[in-house]
Amino acid sequence: MNTSAKTLSHDTIRAVQWQGDHLRLLDQRLLPRKEHWFDCRDYLQVTQAIKDLAVRGAPAIGIAAAWGVVLAAQQGQSLDAALATLRAARPTAVNLMWALDRMKAVIATGADAGRLEREAQAIQDEDLAANRHMGELGAALIAPNSGVLTHCNTGSLATAGYGTALGVIRAGVANGHIEQVYAGETRPWQQGARLTMWELVRDGIPAKLIADSAASHLMRSGAVQWVIVGADRIAANGDTANKIGTYQLAIAARHHGVKFMVVAPSSTVDMATVSGDDIEIELRDPTELLGLGGQRTVVEGADAWNPVFDVTPASLIDAIVTERGVIERPNTMAMLAMFGR
Ligand code: MRU
Q1: Ligand 1 center to 153 CA (angstroms)
Q2: Residues 173 and 110 in one domain
Q3: Contact yes or no for 147/225 (Cβ under 8 A)
Q4: What's the pLDDT score for residue 133?
Q5: Distance between alpha carbon 209 and the CA centroid of its chain, in Å?
Q6: Which of 94, 153, 322 best tests ligand 1's pocket when mutated (most atoms within 8 Å of CB)?
Q7: Which among 102, 129, 156 is the end of a domain?
Q8: Catalytic pick from 232, 270, 310, 318?
Q9: Is 150 a residue whose pLDDT tops 60?
Q10: How many helices (H) and strands (E) does the chain have?
Q11: Is residue 53 over pLDDT 60?
């Protein structure tokens, strides 16, 4: 079996499913306890699902938003209102704005709901194809029998399917370059513990969960050669916003001689944002940090600060993998050469 055929065998989850007149979502708030599907019947329900993290991950929220616009068009609602409401659902992942801008451009041609439906489907299909290609490009950078550490969830759940960083991991396991995967639990929402481990166990990939605070100790042990993460927005100089905790992993990786790879489709690249300093970081409700699984664990009266993304400077990134190719040691020149202005 060649690599392409092998990598496709590890890929079964489709969390965002268009049903012709409604959008079916796998509720990521309940995994892995419960595999519950629910239907969004208008764009306001899609917006709420994005805000509540029922659907999450940069590419997946862009895809869901595109389907939200289709629902608005089918129901004869104001498309300007739908675009504005969906756009405001979350601030950091640029895939949301990118997908809506793409739908807006089609609306501007006077397109009907059928044409918009084809555009949303194209956005979804292109994401899956990009992920499969990035999987092969990223896995080729990894030496045989390596250990890798990943953060948050970047898999089929976070995308149209297969995943970005998790796509590289799927491809790397399939071609024998990756022997052992470690996943950080990703406090406070536990995307790593609840979602990435769910995907890895389903695919039979050798994986160990670690507490986020065990990462430096793991790197010092020599068990991992790469940290592989996704992205929510990559600025024009290569600075990368991703799930909170990514930045400290990049610092620790550089200190220990572990390589650091960012994997994201070109829909995550924002050449209009000059550097990471210009990226808006989402702040969520402090109560997400004051409990576990809906159970309060911190004394009443306590406050918390809950930024859910951080920015890793380009200087700490060894490779950015996109479907257009790999940029090693990213900087503004290399980003411009691959993505233009
Ligand atoms: O808050 P989330 O769960 O939407 O954050 C997701 C991440 O930070 C992912 O790493 C990123 O979106 C890439 S997903 C392919």
Answers
A1: 6
A2: no
A3: yes
A4: 98
A5: 19
A6: 153
A7: 129
A8: 232
A9: yes
A10: 11, 16
A11: yes
